[in-house]
Amino acid sequence: VGNSKDLEQNKVIDKEGGFIGLGRTNTLADDLNKEYFTRVDLSTTNSIPLDVGKKDIKLITPHPKNSYRITMNGNKPVAIEILNATEFWKGSRYLVILVD
Description:
This protein has helices at 4-9, 85-88; strands at 13-16, 25-28, 47-49, 57-59, 68-73, 76-82, 97-99.
């Protein structure tokens, strides 16, 4: 979890494409810094708490929208609830959340 500057500096994401900084997309870095992540047991983790203090978050890693839901407190996201762990972790064993 982090803003784009933090995630780039810690070698978690790269920005690709675009023209003069416009239209760029965030992707996982080729030389991904695995030390930046918190290890969890994928079979028992049903919820991931968020302490982001903002209302806009974006999942950078691919996770099907029907496999999770974002729990809100007012207009602030407080957790990601995993509804189907098999589907959620199928696309990536990492979870990267962009907060900007």
